[in-house]
Structure formats: C-alpha cells, structure tokens
C-alpha cells in the first residue's frame, strides 16, 4: 500500500467505526424510548439512586431480557430495620387449588381501614364485594407519614377481579394516592394489569429524606420505582432496573 492510499484507508475505517457507533447509539435510544419503565439515567441523582437500589434490592444481574444493568427482583426481602410494619400480607400460590392464597398479618385501625375501603369503592369495588381485601401499613421513624395499601381480589372461574390503591397518609389522615388499579377483570394466568408491591422506605439519595421504593409487576415485566414525598406532594424520581421475560 502506498503512502498516499494509507491515510485514506485509515480514514475510511474510522468512518465505518463511527457510523457503527452512531447506529448502536440510535438503537439504544430507540429501545429506551419504547420502554417507559426504564428511561435513560442521565444525571448524578439518578445514578446515585441506581447504585443504592442495585446494592440493596437486586439479585442476579443481568437477568432475563432487557438492558445489561437489569437484575432479578424475585427475592424480595423484608423492609429495613427502621421500618415499622403495622400491617402487611403475603400471597402464595396453591397448586392443588390453582389459586393464590393470601394471609393478613397485623390489623389496620378502623378509621384508616374505612379510608382505604372508600378509596377502593371509588375505584369500582362494590360496598358488599364478595372478594377479599388485604392491607399494608408501614411507618418510618424518620417520616411524618405512613405508607398504606389496600388490595382487593375475587376469583371468578378462569378470571380474577383486582383492585388496588397505594397511598401515603399523614398525621391528619390526609391521603395522597401514589398508585391505583381501578377494578378490573383479568386472566389469572396472563393478567394485563400493573400491580404494585412496597419494597422499602429508605434514603436512596443520601440526603436524609425517606423515599418509597416499589416494585411494579406487569405480568412478565418487573421494575423498581422510587417516590419522593415532601410537603404533602409525591413525585416519582426513579424508574428502572428489574427484568422482563
């Protein structure tokens, strides 16, 4: 190869490499845009939250399909030691009955229970609904509010009726709804709904503020979300990680 052709050939190779990188970046951006639960993490706060979540709530990584930073969320441990669990429930699948069996742990005080039942009724649950309702109440020693959840389910043949509300309640019993699932009938095996499970109340950014950490479950798609609660308002400050199949 002559000296005249050498630089031209090198420039051509560099051009091809640059084009490949641009195409790969475009593909990554397109994938991010198509996944509303895992938007691009571009600022320092998001990266700090990501590191905290991966350290405390992630299992095997990468896991399933999706981005390389994804992780297994199936082994969900109890909340941190400074979280007081006043009420909670757990569900396990009964193979012989082909149904989920849920058990309530702890009780909700009558006033708060009535508030949550009214929230479910506003979402479509009848006053004398035939299904079962389960409750969650968590408190943090560093927060002036409680995380509460009411979950209603009723099996109907091969379908199941579901309704859910997740909220924070302050000391004056003011309710701020964080997530809700209006009453809906779904297939038991392939439910086309998004359900929410509290994971922890923790300082995800290292600034002394207690955030709410949730898992979103949409059939074969599972991800983490972080909600900041300040002055009676709530804001989702992170969504990502997890896995899909």
Could you give a quick summary of the protein structure above?
By secondary structure, the protein is an alpha+beta fold. Helix content is 23%, strand content 42%.
Tally of alpha and pi helices: 3
Categorize the overall geometry: globular
The whole-angstrom Rg is 23 Å
Strands of the biggest beta sheet: in what spatial order? 2-1-3-4-5-6
Which structural class do the helices and strands define? alpha+beta
Count of β-strands: 10
The overall pLDDT average reads 87
Q: How would you characterize the largest beta sheet?
A: 6 strands, antiparallel
Following the backbone from N to C, one meets helices and strands in this order, namely HHEEHEEEEEEEE
Note poorly predicted spans. 23-32
Question: What proportion of the residues is helical, as a percent range?
Answer: 10-25%
The domain count comes to: 1
Give an account of the 3D structure.
The protein is an alpha+beta fold. The chain has one domain. It is 23% helix and 42% strand. It contains three helices and ten strands; from the N terminus they run ααββαββββββββ. The strands form two sheets. The chain has a six-stranded antiparallel sheet, covered by helices on one side. A hairpin with a 2-residue loop joins strand 4 and strand 5.
List descriptors:
10 strands, alpha+beta, single chain, six-stranded antiparallel sheet, 245 residues, globular, four-stranded antiparallel sheet
Give the arrangement of secondary structure elements.
Blueprint: H1 5-34, H2 44-57, E1 83-94, E2 99-105, H3 110-122, E3 132-140, E4 145-156, E5 159-170, E6 175-187, E7 195-202, E8 211-218, E9 221-230, E10 233-244
